[in-house]
Design a protein that fits this description.
Helix content: 25-40%
Structural class: alpha/beta
Number of strands: 13
Strand order of the largest sheet: 3-2-1-4-5-6-7
Order of helices and strands: EHEEHHEEHHHEHEEHEHEHEHEHEHHH
Distance between the termini: 16 Å
CATH class of the largest domain: Alpha Beta
CATH superfamily of the largest domain: Glycogen Phosphorylase B
């Protein structure tokens, strides 16, 4: 057997905690010797495990404002990506809009969470028609140049992997690229330690749970509105630009938590009654995380949840992301009985070992073809 290929990992920016960042942690497990390239890195705002990685950042990282809010760097990100050249045989690029563009001496395998939402799904990304806000108008002005940059770099990649069926179809529509679907693993280890959350010390188990970044298209505000009319309790775990707005409008039966570590997140999942997944996601990761603890999901019918929620086995669907539909789903679920073993089995189908094995096979094949 010849020498193993020199592998590097790339990611858009390490400034938040989300499903894409959990995938990068799995990539580091698959290729533990690989350096990790990214435009921005803010250690306090993402998963602590990244402190153990060899991280190489762009010149944008010298600006504290951009590390706090990567959206502020949008006009400069193409320049930053183009300036950071990666010396490797294979670059595994975890991309939602940028990492597929890093220049390299070798070949690029793109693991795509979605083609850039801010370019191709602008209104959805903003949570309102782009022409109705100053931010939206600025994005519309930048969009033609960003789309040209994005498409040019997408077609330089050796191969694409899609994280879900909906993203595979979007890649075909946006780029004309065919991609294999390789679903990411569930992001939590159910056997890991749990730590109680002090802010829930006076609440018993059995609340409904939302785990999400607090962005307009995530529809967390609609969940809050639904629970104004319900007796059930709601726990929201997340942070993002809408945090202060959501916190200011919470009803008495809702709590908002931010900055939980993994042990606390495990505890929150373990003590929930059900997860609510209200957004049109590229991949439905949180139902798998909840499923690791035998908890069902009430999900919006669409996007990546079509891959990870099976009605009657690990959850049910509601049709529209509005307060009335969400509240109705909660009421219908009041009398439902879920088999935790069946729910866990749905999550087990998305194992980390399966993901890592297939990814290594593809990397080895691309290296042999070089």
């Amino acid at each position: 057997m010849g020498l193993r290929p020199r592998v590097a990992i790339a990611h858009d920016y390490l400034t938040q905690r989300g499903g894409a960042e959990r995938v990068v942690l799995t990539l580091l497990k698959a290729f533990p010797d690989a350096p990790l390239y990214t435009t921005l890195y803010e250690p306090d705002n993402t998963f602590p495990e990244f402190r153990d990685a060899r991280i190489v950042t762009s010149w944008l990282n010298k600006v504290p404002l951009f590390r706090r809010d990567h959206r502020a760097a949008l006009p400069l990100l193409p320049l930053a990506v183009d300036s950071l050249r990666i010396d490797a045989d294979i670059v595994v690029a975890s991309s939602s809009g940028w990492a597929h563009g890093f220049p390299t001496t070798g070949r690029t395998l793109v693991y795509c969470h979605s083609p850039a939402r801010f370019v191709y799904l602008t209104d959805e990304y903003l949570g309102a028609p782009a022409h109705t806000s100053a931010k939206g108008l600025a994005l519309l002005a930048l969009r033609p140049a960003l789309a040209r940059w994005d498409r040019r770099h997408a077609h330089r990649a050796a191969a694409y992997l899609a994280n879900s069926t909906v993203v595979r179809n979007r890649l075909r529509e946006v780029y004309g690229i065919e991609a294999e679907v390789l679903s990411p693993p569930a992001g939590v280890d159910p056997e890991g330690p749990q730590s109680p959350v002090p802010d829930l010390a006076d609440w018993r188990a059995g609340y409904h749970l939302v785990v999400s970044r607090l962005l307009p298209y995530k529809n967390v505000r609609q969940v809050v509105d639904a629970f104004r009319e319900l007796d059930e309790r709601l726990v929201i775990v997340g942070r993002g630009p809408l945090r202060d707005e959501i916190a200011a409008t919470l009803p008495p039966n809702a709590r908002l938590l931010s900055g939980l570590d993994d042990a606390q997140l495990r505890w929150v999942y373990a003590h929930a009654q059900a997860l609510i997944a209200p957004s049109f996601e590229d991949f439905g990761l949180t139902p798998l995380e909840a499923g690791c603890y035998g908890k069902p999901t009430l999900a919006l019918r669409g996007g990546g949840y079509l891959d990870t929620v099976t009605p009657g086995q690990n959850g049910s669907f509601f049709e529209t992301p509005d307060a009335a539909a969400i509240a109705a789903a909660v009421r219908v679920n009041r009398g439902a009985t879920w088999d935790p073993v069946t729910v866990r089995a749905c999550a087990d189908a998305f194992s980390e070992a399966r993901f890592v094995e297939r990814l290594r096979e593809i990397v080895d094949r691309l290296a042999e073809q070089a």
